[in-house]
Structures are given as structure tokens and as C-alpha cells.
Amino acid sequence: MYRYDEFDQAFVNERVAQFRDQVARRLTGELDEDQFKPLRLQNGVYLQLHAYMLRIAVPYGTLSPKQVRMLAHIARTYDKGYGHFTTRQNLQFNWPQLKDVPDILADLASVEMHAIQTSGNCIRNVTADHFAGVAADEVADPRPYAEILRQWSSLHPEFLFLPRKFKIAVTGASADRAAIQFHDIGYEVKRNEHGELGFAVYIGGGMGRTPMLAKKIRDFLPEEDLLAYSEAILRVYNMHGRRDNKYKARIKILVHETGMEGIAEEVEAEFEATRHGVLRLPEEEVRRIAAYFAQPSYEERPAASAVLERARLADQNFDRWVRHNVSRHRAPGYAIVTVSLKPIGGVPGDATAAQMEAVADIAERWSLSEVRVSHEQNLVLPHVAQDDLKAVYDALAAHDLAAANAGLITDIISCPGLDYCALATARSIPIAERISERFADAFRQEDIGELKIKISGCINACGHHHAGHIGILGLERKGEEFYQITLGGSGDERASIGEIVGRGFSTAEIVDAVETLVDTYIAKRESASEPFLATYRRLGPAPFKEALYGAA
Amino acid sequence: MSAPLSIITGNSLGEGLVVFQTAGGWSLDIGHAEVLETDDALAAALARANADAAANRVVEPYSVEVTRVGARLVPVRLREQIRADGPTVGHSKDKDSAVSEEAA
């Protein structure tokens, strides 16, 4: 893992001290709300529906057990005993008191964490594939590049007041688990025909009220040009992005209105002017950062574990969990474990302090002291020996963390919605809970197979509904919540934006509507191995519309 | 149908908690809110609330329409019902449950 150097630590400590002073001045009335609001937002503090909310950055979703324990400590000491993992690999606390926030930030700084740039019109936390460094299909670990981008973008003086927020994601594999085509910039690490490392570069993707897939601006950008090219994109956006209308201020609108050709021309010109300067990445610096993410020393193990096979035969629940929550690891005899934060009927992404501590203990004992956060609001144990999977499963099960549903219909992404969020127009968590309960049966879930349901409580789409195989958008009409369904969205390498299927559904109707869609899929699929999305892409919306609304 | 009733709400500065304006200050309990039945009463209450915001006792006060249901005051909009009652789901449903569960 990356470790703060003296510069990083001093910088974060100074920021804590600065914000402590700002909070003190707010509490004594020296600063009014108008003056204070931009300052608190720059430190991740929102004022939500019920209370302040603190959003903590988890750079590229990587955490040490020590950091996870600190999050548990904060949850217990300053909040209500739990935290909420978000769709951007971050963690939110829903109930901190303003007067405690400086102490919370000091606690975070002591474990090399902060909340800087988790809000505001700046470059936000850089996200990455949650299987980075361990995925069997990876070209290279994306996290060193994400870390280099983090260092470059942290308090970058030119980019602290952008037209709107700016999100960058990096994936190291052609199978995209970081949804890079839904980001302002998406980098895919790849090798060119000479075997050299670099990136395919996508820009202009995003969700929100105007969802757009990113377009490829460069098929291959050499590794050494990562920062110069990023700076060129940001500079063009900062100059030309609209500031007159916040709903048209993201780079996706600029790309859409100007056209890719015009943008690319400007970016390339800007890049040409800067690429030979200080932003060129020295090879040794890339390798120095990469060394922090070096492969741990795995024990030599046979590719298949007899211990695991015996355990699977002896326990069908464990066997089911292995089928869905365990992924292939690049090292022989190891596995990647997805820890589901989606218990049946639970709040997607919530973890109690006790659960966080259990995960920290398990990671320390069985996962080479590393934990990841996925944008699908789950945790990941990236380095588990196959021989240890049963012990890990038992330890997780003891803390209600062993739901065998990764990638299945109950592995629902949901934003906090109207239960917490000041922007929301409808509740999303209760819908997630009810769908989860409706499809609780493990055999039924397994029969349905891979199906991503994503729920947003407003048009801002924090619940990624545009990328849901079944997307649900909560809106308000005449004081009543109602829910619009989109179908066919996907956040992977074959990214697509879901299409609205028809009129919306009431709170009472929405779960039945989802079940109708699922039953239609089951009836229409070619075989049990054809997933929902493939069936939808093969047949289009017609049979689903007919099932929901009757023949036209 | 009677004219809409209003109350004033906001968040407390230090804690961020939802508060309701009473005749003499602010309360966490919507049941203690001062009910404003006329435009003049509403304007006067908002002026007091804004003065409290300027004095940093409360953050971003605004008025909310309510109805009387029996002895209770119920906001018209769901958003405000949820603000008054707390989240309808999950770990915060009972404001103390998560903490006591952790302590147990």
C-alpha cells in the first residue's frame, strides 16, 4: 500500500489544523454560513437532511486493517456505530456533529486518511478497479497511476474551482470493473504493439440528469504522459466548460456541444505545449510509486486446493458463497473474496463498527492485511489463500457478512435517497430492502443469475441507475414517490445507458414490476446461461414493456 | 379545508440536528413547534428565525407546511416528515439502537 511521506503527512496535518480553526470560528459566529459552507465542503462536510454528513476519501478503494479499525472507532465514538460505503469507493458518516469533525479528521490523519476534495467543484477521489493488482485478467495494477493522479490533483491550484466536479477512474484490465466510461476521464491501462505501458483515454462520460458514455480521445497514451495529458484535458475543460448553468457544466456537455474532434484538437495542442515540461513522468518515479503496490510475497501453493474442495462438498451454503463471492486470483492457490454488504433486507453499503473491526481482523489474519472498497458498495479481501476460504467464510458469517450474492439480484446498489439526502426526491433504501426480501430465496437468486439492480433517489444518479441492468429512479409527483424503470444499462467494458421502459410505478407497485421483468426474462431467455442483460440486448425492450404495460 | 398551517425548521449549528422553532427558541421535537396560522405570524416567525441564523443559533431556517392529525403536527411533504421523524430504514431508524447494540 502507498504510505504517506513527510510531505503528505505535513500537508494533511496542516489541513486539519486549518479546518479546526475554521470550525471554531464558525461556532463562535466569526464566520457565517455563507462564508463557511465552501470551506466545509472542501473538507467533505455536507449538511444533509438530518445532520451533518462527512465523506471520507478512500483513494482507489484500498484500505489497511489499521485504517478500517479507525473508521470503526470513529463510527462508535462520533457517529451512531456504523458507516456507509458509497458508490465512489468512499465512506460516509451520517451523523457527525460539526464540533467533532476536527477531531475526526485528526484521527483520520493519524492513519493517513482525509476528506479533502470529497465535495466541491474539484477533482474528486480517483477510483480504480477493486480487484486491482490481483485480477487474473490484468495488464498492470492501475493503483500506482491512480496514486500519481491523486498527488497531482490534490490541491492543484489551477483546478480547485472547476465549472463542476470532476471524476477520474482507472482500470488495469480490459474487463472494466471501474465503470471508466461513466467518468469525466477514464484511463484503461494497456500495452501497445511494442509492449510498452500506456493508456486508452476516454473523456466525457457521466451519469446525472444527462447520462453520457465517454468517448475515446486517445487509443494509446504513453505512460510518461499521464499527467501532461490529464492537465491538458482539465485545462481545456476549465477554460471552456460552462459556468452559467450547473446542469450543463460537466465536461460531458462540453464534449457533446463542441464535438469530440474540436475538443481533441484543443487537448492535443495543450498537451503538445506541456508534454516536454515538468509534467513528464520520470520512469524512476513511476517505479517508486509502483513499489508501494508491489505484489505481496505469496506462499507457493498448488493452483487448486484440496482443502477447499472438501469444504465445498461438506457445506452447500459455503459452496454457494464460493460460487458467487470468490473470484480468480492471479497467484496460484489464492482467491479474491467479495464481502457482501447486502444482507437480505439490509441497507446496501452499511457496515457497523463491529463489522468493520471483524473485516480488519480477517484481513490481517487471512488477506495479507489489505481490504478494498468496491463501487458496488461491497468490501473485498484481495489475497486469501484458497485453503483459508472456509475459515474466512465462517468468520464473516459470524458477523452477518457472508451473504452469497455478489453480482446477483440482491447485490443492489442504492444511494442513501430521501432517508438521508437533502437532494433526493424519493427514498431508495426501502426499495432496495423490499426487492432484496422479495428475491431472498438463494436458489431463485442463483437461477436468475447475474443481474445488477441500481437505485437512485433523484436525477443526480448517485445510485448509478443509468448503468443498472434494471435501473430504478425515484422521483416525486404531486407529493408522492414514484419510480421510473430503465433497462439495459451496463457499467462494464460494453457500457450502455439504460432506456426508460415506460411510465413510472408507485411505491406499492415497484417491487411487483421488478418481479414481472425478472419473470419475463426467465421465460424468454435462451438458456439458464444467458444472463438478463444478454436477453435484453437480444430481444430489446418490447417483451418487457408488454409484460409491464400490456400489449400496445 | 382550513388555511395551511406552517412551522419553521432548520438545523442546529453545532450538532446539525433538525430543530423546530418554538415560541421561545428551538426544539428537537416537532410537537413543540410554534404553529403559524396567518401570513403575518409566519413572516414574524421567519424574521425571528433569520435573526437566530444571523446569531449562529441555527442554520438555514425555512418554513414548512403542516397539518394537524389528532394532537400531532405532520408535515405535508414526505421530505419534511422524514426530517421530523428520522430515517425510515436501517441503522438509524431508532436513533439510539445502533449505539446501544454496539455497546452491548
Brief summary of the model shown:
With 552 residues, chain A is an alpha+beta fold. Chain A is built from 18 helices and 21 strands. Chain A has helices at residues 6-27, 33-41, 65-78, 101-109, 143-153, 226-240, 251-258, 260-274, 283-292, 306-314, 316-325, 353-366, 389-397, 429-438, 442-448, 507-524, 532-539, 542-549, and strands spanning 45-47, 52-56, 62-63, 82-85, 91-93, 127-128, 168-171, 185-191, 197-203, 215-222, 326-328, 334-339, 350-352, 371-373, 379-385, 413-414, 453-456, 470-477, 480-487, 499-500, 505-506.
Overview features:
heterodimer, A: alpha+beta, six-stranded mixed beta sheet, B: 104 residues, alpha+beta, five-stranded antiparallel beta sheet
User: What is the number of E strands of chain B?
Assistant: 5
Structural class of chain B: alpha+beta
| Quaternary form | heterodimer
Structural class of chain A: alpha+beta
Give, in order, the helices and strands of chain B: EEEHEEHH
What fraction of the residues of chain B are assigned to beta strands by DSSP?
25-35%
Q: Which overall shape of chain B is indicated by the principal axes computed on the Cα atoms?
A: globular
Helix content of chain B: 25-40%
Quick one: how many beta strands of chain A?
21
Shape of chain A: globular
Q: Major β-sheet of chain B, in short?
A: 5 strands, antiparallel
The pair of chains with the biggest contact is: A-B, 38 and 31 residues
The span between the termini of chain B is 50 Å
Instruction: Kindly report the average pLDDT value of chain A.
Output: 96
How is the largest sheet of chain B built, in terms of strand order? 3-2-1-4-5
Poorly predicted ranges of chain A: none
Radius of gyration from the alpha-carbon trace of chain A, in angstroms: 23 Å
Provide structural commentary:
Chain A is an alpha+beta fold and 552 residues long. Chain A is 37% helix and 17% strand. Chain A is built from 18 helices and 21 strands. In chain A, the strands form four sheets. In chain A, strands 16, 17, 18, 19, 20 and 21 form a six-stranded mixed β-sheet that branches. In chain A, strands 1-2-5-4-13 form a five-stranded antiparallel β-sheet. Chain A has a five-stranded antiparallel β-sheet with strand order 3-14-15-12-11. In chain A, a hairpin with a 5-residue loop joins strand 14 and strand 15 (379-385). In chain A, helix 1 (6-27) packs antiparallel against helix 2 (33-41), helix 6 packs across helix 8 and helix 14 crosses helix 16. The longest helix of chain A has 22 residues, at 6-27. The N and C termini of chain A lie far apart (57 Å). The mean pLDDT of chain A is 96. Chain B has a five-stranded antiparallel β-sheet with strand order 3-2-1-4-5, covered by helices on one side. Chain B has helices at 39-54, 78-85, 97-103, and strands at residues 5-12, 18-21, 26-27, 58-69, 72-75. Chain B is built from three helices and five strands, in the order βββαββαα. In chain B, a hairpin with a 5-residue loop joins strand 1 (5-12) and strand 2.
